Amino acid sequence: MITLKEVWKIFSPDPQATLSAARQDDIDGKTLKQQSATIAVRNVDLAVTPGELLCVMGLSGCGKSTLIRLVNRLLTPTSGQVLIGDSDIGRLNTAQLRRLRSQDIGMVFQSHGLIGHLSVRDNVALPLEIQRIPRHQREDRADELLQRTGLGGLGDRNVSSLSGGMQQRVGLARALAADPGILLMDEPFSALDPLIRRELQDEFGRLSRDLGKTTLFITHDVEEAFRIADRVALMRAGRIVQLGKPQELVDAPADDYVARFVEPYRTTPEQPPLRMVQ
Amino acid sequence: MTAVGMETDVSTTERSDAIRQFSGRGSQYYVQAFHRIGEGRGRIGSFNPAAALLGPIWFGARRLWAAFWPILVIELLAWIVISVGLSGGANRESLQRADRLATLAESRQAQAAAATQRDPESAMTQSLAESAAALTKERDEAYAAADRASSSAWQILLLGIGGLVIVRAGVGIVATPLLERRFRTWRLLGDSAPTGLSLRGAIAATALMALVVPISALGFSGHLMPALASVPANPDWHSMTAAFLDGAMKTFSEQVAPAAGVMTGTINGALWLMETLLAATPWPVVMTIILALAWQIAGFRVFLLTVVALAYLALLGFWDKSMQTVALLGTAALISIGLGIPLGIACGYHRRLARLVRPALDFMQTMPAFVYLIPVIALFGIGKPSGIIATVFFGIPPVVRLTALGISNVPENVREAATAFGATRAFLLFRVDLPIAMPSIMAGVSQTILMCLSMVVIASLIGAPGLGEDVLRALQYAAQGQGLLAGLAILVCAVVLDRIVQGKAAR
Fold first, then answer.
1. Which residue ranges run through the membrane (chain B) (predicted)?
2. What is the distance between the alpha carbons of residues B44 and B3, in angstroms, rounded to a whole number?
3. Beta pairing partners, A30
4. What pLDDT, on the 0 to 100 scale, is given for residue B44?
């Protein structure tokens, strides 16, 4: 269970000043530029319920990548609370935060962030190595996950010798290694070519549901969001414009912006939203 | 016809408007000229009369400073030749020489005449008369040469004027293409690139010309007033500052003497260890171990190289000395690496620290080693520890720089991913950053080893034994063969060390 309460994230030399001005709606684009300030996340409330796959969708620069980094405190919110389960992660000390990151949250990145000089197996076992789990145990666990993500037998390969899609599978296996309850997916499939992307989307949707992970999934791609998500949040300029089931967004878009986004899915009746899962 | 198939009116395109805005005065000419250049025809055709007439001043006015300076220098040469020609050719010096000879000949003749009066038959008189005759002859020749030179003065003058004309013609040819390039930059950058004619630029260029050309011309024709001829140095300031630095160094070395003692002790300990291993141990043992290491670490080819190298050192009698050298400079290299890698890591993580450290490293590498030998000797005395400290100073910069570079080049996304899985700072450093930076660090280590070995001669100047001594001795007695052999021995040591260390990284 992930809960965000009135979360703000402002990049600025003096974030608090920008924040109080923004709270009173007392700041325009020009002033922001003058202060070299960016309001990346603007008063967001969001809850991902246990076992749910929630997609945050939006164009680049809308703050979605910042949002996901607030969940495991790779970035600290300027204001507001982030709760994992019942605990406010803003109150954790360094050791507790590390434990949370290594045991309870798995993350997959667009630019995979694998370590080039390590083998595939060692990369997958990285979260376990950080937890100081004995070598044999973590290697066995890594092999099990490689099996599961369709990389069986590739454990001894060097990560840089794999294709982009394979590398992203390694990233996924790594995120699952510590068996965390929460998965954070930061545009994991965006850099892949369409065929591989669809294959991975389907596989991931299945895997995530089988394992019952609570997942926050970031994407700029409506098709991807509608394909895998239980619920979709559409983000624009740091705000969540609409949050709901894919069908709700199609049937009752909150405004023109949402309507334009879901345009391909509300066209002619003879083209039913086939591509939508469920 | 243009490639598109229709003739466009040059003066109405968007480009032409931009050219007009850019060029200010003479825009009609530049629209046409830039068009020709853009079409790829006629660099010569775009001869710029204004630039040819005004020379450097035109470049100042157009603020093409990058071209202004070389043109000013070339033109200055032409002006100098002209001034030499105007002041009578190169004969000024030969005239002076002839005058000197004339005075000498006169006094010799007077001496000869005096001697003839005293004793016309003596050998002394004869030799004086001969000398006087020779001097007179030489004087006549010198005057003749001066005459010839002054008759060629107009040739020099012509050469100078011709040179100036050629320079100006060249300037006229390159001016417009250069301005066209500036125009393209201006279109790209907008107003941050200078445009139009600048009065200030023209004034600055004129002032520079007015300062530089006449003074040089006067200087070369020998009419420069003495105040401008010699640089206004104040010798007192020099000696005062040097004396102050002497005092400061003395106080400093007294202050840190205890710390210096500890350092000397530590270095001597490390050195003793290395010397015992390399120099005191019987040679077959050392040689076997080095060869085995070369094979193990770096493979067969480096092993072969090492065999040849060690054979050279052993057969030509350099073995003991080279082991001493390697022990000494190896200690220095180890200290450099041991201090340099942590410092480099710190610099890689902290930009501000890196900004502070970089000038210090530049200083250590650029300052001639002889200069910092002086304070090192003052602090640590003459001997091996001083040699090692001076070597560390010189050898540490590459490993610091390349370690910092390697660390700061670690991809941020890899670091972020590791952090997201709960990595501690130590884990990030040892499992992520250092392995990724390793190739860069190893390059730094190799550079440091080579730099340390290159200090061998300088270290031996202050009493460090080894191959450097041989080179020094060869230098003193101009013994080329010995010098070459000893130099080659140093090279051989460096190459073997470097290949073995790098061999590890290459695998």
1. 64-86, 156-179, 199-220, 271-295, 302-319, 325-349, 370-397, 441-463, 483-501
2. 23
3. none
4. 58
Q: What is the pLDDT of residues B358-370, one digit of tens each?
A: 999 998 888 887 8
| Same domain assignment for residues B118 and B170 | yes
Q: Mark yes or no for CB contact A74/B436 under 8 Å.
A: no
CA dist A75 and A257 (Å) reads 28
Q: The tokens of A140 are what? A: 């066995």
Which of B340, B338, B337 has the alpha carbon at shortest distance from B348? B340
Asked whether residue A161 is domain-assigned, the answer is yes
Cβ of B422 within 8 Å of Cβ of A103? The answer is yes
Among all residues of chain A, which has the CA nearest to that of B439? A117
Q: Do A2 and A48 meet the contact criterion of CB atoms below 8 Å apart?
A: yes
Binary contact (A109, B417; C-beta < 8 A): yes
User: In the listed set B227, B255, B290, which residue is the last one of a domain according to the structure?
Assistant: B227
Residues of B in contact with A184 (CB under 8 A): 420
Instruction: Establish if A192 belongs to a structural domain.
Output: no
Yes or no, beta carbons of B423 and A109 under 8 Å apart: no
Question: Which of A111, A116, A130 has the CB atom closest to B421's CB atom?
Answer: A130
B301 and B327 belong to one structural domain: yes
The answer to whether the Cβ–Cβ distance between B422 and A116 falls below 8 Å is no
Residue A166 is assigned to a structural domain of this protein: yes
Would you call B435 and A117 a contact, using CB atoms and an 8 Å cutoff? yes
Mean pLDDT of B63-84: 90
Is B182 part of any domain? yes
Cross-chain residue pair B418–A105, CB shorter than 8 Å: no
Mean pLDDT, to the nearest integer, of B136-149?
81
Q: Is B77 on the interface with A (CB under 8 A)?
A: no
Identify whether residues B361 and B421 lie together within a single domain. yes
Mean predicted confidence (pLDDT) in B244-272: 87
Domain that includes residue B158, residue range: 47-227
Is the distance from CB of B67 to CB of B178 less than 8 angstroms?
A: yes
* pLDDT on residue B2: 42
Give, to the nearest 10 degrees, the angle between helix B153-189 and helix B123-151. Answer: 50
Please name the member of A111, A117, A127 whose beta carbon is closest to the beta carbon of B421.
A127
pLDDT 10s digits, B317-339 = 899 999 988 898 889 999 999 99
**Are B118 and B191 part of one and the same domain?**
yes
pLDDT tens, residue by residue, A137-176: 999 999 999 998 888 889 899 998 998 889 999 999 999 9
Give B419→chain A minimum CA distance, Å: 8
pLDDT in tens, B375-432: 888 888 888 888 888 889 889 999 999 999 999 999 999 999 999 999 999 999 999 9
Higher pLDDT, B47 or A84: A84
- B278: tokens are 């390399």
Tell me whether residues A115 and B419 touch, CB distance under 8 A: no
Of B422, B424, B432, the CB nearest to A127: B422
Given a contact cutoff of 8 angstroms between Cβ atoms, the answer to whether A208 and A215 are in contact is yes
Touching check for B507 and chain A: CB below 8 Å?
no
Query: Both B252 and B109 in a single domain?
Result: no
ipTM for the complex shown: 0.88
